[in-house]
Design brief:
Length: 554
């Protein structure tokens, strides 16, 4: 099928037969600059070369439900699906590659009617057929399977649900992502914290949304109070290989204060965790604990990504394992504004509107730059998209494309706060996979070449260590990190996350970092430390942490 641009609408001309022949005709039209009127007889003339007959369906347009989600921009890894009911109870599936209006990219066929839909017996079979027919690359090791969803982000469970849907969405990533469509586009989300939420698109590249009044005034005040009670300390993160080699310090990139707020800290934090899951339509098992942030006068966080650019960690094996060779990471960031800030403190996206380099590829070193896509000044807050703090609002942005490739346009920063002002905010990160998903080193993984792994024998950070806890104590517990100073059970303990009964916790640690597990009553285990490259401990009913073997994820 191909589309004709008319004064009233962009309508399809459906051609049955080998797509290669149809593609040749389309290329001829584009390069010879044939008008729509001259294209119709050309198609009719070529019908003798096609299996079947060319059918002029210029009076047929996408349904209103489908048109609502078609964009002038293309989103790699997204396909908008339109189930079509034909005569005799037969049905077909029309696909809109990239979720894009067909006229927006005339160099390729974006719309296809898939054959063989009547033979599909399961949603897995249908999903496989859609992905294969549209030429998506086969799944790599550790990659999440493709999936199909409805317009409210619900995963479709069977073919009948797909047939009945007014519109559906195929995502190569296999995890729901709200379609951005166009700036100002609004989606009314049902069942968010027992009510509804209005999601408004602020940007397409990167995909940024806003929900106002997501948090009540009372909730924002309580979160800030919990942070003060918990105690805030200097923010730190994982440094890139070149910065480690240069001996740089964390304060050269950010100088805010932070605290980690786990679900067991307060019923409110647990309640908000579920509300975030309602908002993203991703299970709460993918959610990290809340990272509370406080910025004082002039404090900032320079430009950074919330996903792992593996080419910047080209000799840190533990980073590659932790990110599942690029197939695990912070899919989405839900950023909370807890107070109004009169001056500064904006969330800044400096690469706003830049093109996606080689959008059909899986990314890698060669796709970091292309015409129009450049690295900005990481310390500047000039240009780009700025979102000012608004008390109770949250902004949601995606750090990955629907294809599963990291989005370089999601680079963001926290602009300096104005004179005599304070900014309170919080991060809630949502992973592609559950947080306790495990991976191992895979020799020959395609990502090694794509992202430029130095070589198979590159030296690993000798202090990096993966720490795993198994909770067999019969009660929910918190993972507590012991800071370098003070007594083991004093105020130097910082909560990392909670572990459910019979649950597990996996985190990246370093040699010399010590942890214990503690329940709500204050009962604490013995202190344990990680021995590189990994250590696993099980908490017994008598609250003793004992060394155990690594166990596969259930």
């Amino acid at each position: 099928p191909f589309w004709l641009k008319t004064d009233s609408y962009h309508s399809p001309l459906l051609l049955s037969g080998p797509p290669a022949v149809a593609t040749v005709l389309w290329v001829a039209m584009v390069h010879l600059r044939l008008s729509a009127l001259s294209w119709i007889p050309l198609a009719g003339l070529a019908a003798q070369f096609l299996i079947g007959q060319a059918v002029d369906t210029s009076d047929i347009v996408a349904s209103a439900a489908v048109r609502e989600y078609l964009s002038e921009d293309s989103f790699p890894g997204l396909v908008v699906l339109e189930p079509l009911k034909l005569d005799g109870g037969v049905w077909s599936l029309r696909t809109y590659y990239g979720g894009q209006l067909p006229f927006a990219a005339p160099e390729r066929s974006l719309v296809r009617d898939l054959p063989g839909t009547a033979a599909w017996t399961s949603i897995e079979e249908a999903t496989e057929a859609i992905g294969t027919s549209l030429g998506f690359a086969p799944l790599e090791p550790l990659q999440t399977p493709w999936a199909v969803f409805d317009a409210q982000g619900g995963r479709l469970q069977d073919v009948e649900a797909l047939k009945a849907a007014p519109v559906a969405f195929f995502l190569e990533l296999g995890v729901w992502m709200w379609p951005a469509v166009r700036i100002g586009f609004e989606q009314q989300l049902r069942d968010v914290g027992g009510g509804t939420a209005l999601l408004r698109t602020l940007s397409l590249r990167p995909k940024v949304f806003e929900v106002r009044e997501f948090l009540s005034v009372e909730e924002t005040e309580e979160v800030m109070r919990l942070g003060e009670k918990q105690g805030l300390h200097a923010s730190q993160g994982r440094m890139q290989s070149r910065d480690l080699e240069a001996g740089k310090k964390h304060t050269q990139f950010r100088n805010s204060k932070q605290a980690w707020l786990g679900n067991s800290l307060s019923p409110l934090i647990a309640k908000l965790d579920l509300r975030i899951s309602d908002l993203t339509r991703v299970p709460a098992s993918h959610n990290e604990p809340v990272q509370l942030l406080r910025y004082g006068e002039g404090q900032y966080y320079h430009g950074h990504m919330d996903w792992t650019e593996l080419e910047l960690y080209d000799n840190q094996r533990d980073v590659w394992i932790g990110s599942h060779f690029g197939h695990q990471g912070r899919l989405a960031t839900v950023f909370w504004y807890l107070n109004d800030v009169e001056e500064g403190g904006e969330t800044f996206f400096p690469k706003h509107g830049q093109p996606i380099c080689e959008p059909a590829s899986r990314g890698g070193k060669r796709t970091r730059h292309c015409p129009g896509a450049f690295d900005p000044d990481m310390k500047s807050c000039d240009g780009g998209l700025k979102v000012p703090p608004r008390k109770g609002s949250v902004i949601l942005w995606y750090n990955f494309h629907p294809s599963g490739r990291g989005d370089r346009n999601s680079l963001h920063a926290g602009c300096p706060v104005g004179t005599n002002l304070t900014k309170w905010s919080a991060n809630k990160w949502v992973g592609i996979k559950p947080l306790d998903s495990m991976a191992q080193w895979i020799e020959g993984h395609p990502a090694l070449k794509r992202h430029g792994w130095v070589d198979g024998t590159a030296e690993v950070d000798p202090n990096a260590c993966q720490m795993v806890f198994f909770n067999e104590a019969g009660v929910q517990v918190d993972v507590m990190w012991k800071a370098d100073q003070g007594e083991a059970h004093g105020h130097d303990l910082h909560k990392i996350e909670s572990v459910l009964v019979d649950g597990r916790s996996s985190l990246n640690a370093f040699r010399g970092h010590e942890f214990l597990l503690r329940d709500d009553s204050g009962r604490a285990s013995n202190l344990v430390a990680c021995t590189p490259p990994s250590s696993a401990f099980a908490l017994s009913k008598d609250f003793v942490l004992k060394v155990t073997e690594m166990r596969p994820e259930l």
